[in-house]
Design a protein that fits this description.
The chain has 14 helices and eleven strands. Helix 6 links the parallel strand 4 and strand 5. The strands form two sheets. The chain has a seven-stranded mixed sheet with strand order 6-5-4-7-8-11-10. Strands 1-2-3-9 form a four-stranded antiparallel sheet, with no helix packed on it. It is of the alpha/beta class. It is globular and about 50 Å long. It has two domains: 55 residues, no CATH class; 188 residues, Vaccinia Virus protein VP39 (Rossmann fold, 3-Layer(aba) Sandwich). The longest helix is centred in the last third of the chain and has 14 residues.
């Protein structure tokens, strides 16, 4: 028998695979090895279901890793680094989210789950009525306290506040969760009746990954902390299983045509910075619009009502 057969059979020990299998989002006979390495671990494999296109890791991080992930010792330097425009990240990503979801923020009681150092809460502070962040990584909270944001280390600590939220946000957090089912149910219990849950995640049908199959991009995108690359179907399925009755999933393109040129020509991220003058704002918009219409965006987001 082929080695890959045994690797596939061993997936029964993988919690993420068990959940996907239980929800009928993947089937063993449809699985194949998608890649033999990730960005930070050359020995970590990822798998893809050929019918649903869902991609997931063969092994997962444990909770201890996330709680104790080391960060730079210099707090001020770390904060400044987090708040500057990274060459590898879309510029003004936080501002875009604030504008995009303004009606879910303005005068609302909000929770940013997996908030990191609290950039979203810091920059929307003048808009919301009350904002709280949950961050499992204690090191990040230590850094973020410089900005005096209300942080909790665990979602269960919310019970002590006797508070319900109008809106809960998860920005590129859901794909990291070791126990996504459990977390969704807990988040639902913290929402007011009619409250909104907004989730933004990387998309398994990203154009560079799905259609162009750019190897350097695939190796960069796959990461030991990204346990699942979701599709519209899988994200919607998780939400329905958690009891959210009104779910809408949308396609959104974070990175522009200049960025894609960086991958195609130079095999590296940051093209939206070093190729920023190649295509105009209008041309970048038209390109993103095409990807959105065809469903090949790098990102999907959901808006669900409790």
């Amino acid at each position: 028998m082929k080695k890959s057969y045994f690797e596939l059979k061993n997936l029964n020990k993988n919690n993420i695979y068990k959940i996907l299998k239980k929800y009928k989002l993947v089937r063993l006979k449809n699985l194949s090895i998608f890649s033999h390495k990730t960005r930070d671990n050359k020995n970590l494999k990822s798998f893809i279901d050929k019918k649903t296109n869902i991609i997931f890791l063969g092994k997962t991080r444990n909770e201890y890793y996330y709680k104790n992930k080391k960060l730079p010792k210099d707090k001020e330097k770390y904060i400044n680094t987090c708040h500057q425009k990274f060459s590898n990240n879309p510029p003004h990503d936080t501002e875009r989210r604030i504008n995009q979801f303004r009606k879910f923020i303005k005068n609302k009681v909000i929770l940013d789950f997996g908030c990191g150092t609290g950039d979203f809460l810091i920059k929307s502070k003048k808009i919301f009525n009350k904002g709280i962040g949950v961050e499992i990584n204690s090191k990040r909270i230590e850094h973020a306290n410089i900005k005096k944001i209300n942080f909790l280390k665990n979602i269960d600590e919310i019970d002590n506040l006797n508070i319900k939220f109008d809106t809960i946000f998860l920005f590129h957090v859901f794909e990291h969760l070791i126990k996504p089912e459990e977390i969704l149910l807990k988040l639902k219990s913290k929402l007011k009746r009619g409250g909104q849950l907004i989730i933004e995640v990387p998309h398994a049908n990203d154009y560079l990954l799905k259609k162009l199959k750019v190897k350097s991009f695939i190796n960069f995108t796959l990461w030991s902390e990204h346990l699942i690359l979701h599709t519209k179907k899988s994200l919607n399925c998780f939400l329905k299983k958690a009891g959210f009755k009104i779910n809408k999933v949308y396609f959104y393109q974070r990175y522009n045509l200049n960025n894609h040129m960086g991958w195609l020509v130079c095999d590296k991220p940051g093209g939206h910075t070093f190729f920023k003058n190649i295509f105009t704002k209008k041309e970048n918009y038209q390109y993103s619009n095409i990807l959105t219409k065809k469903g090949y965006t790098d990102t999907i987001f959901s808006i669900s009502k409790n």
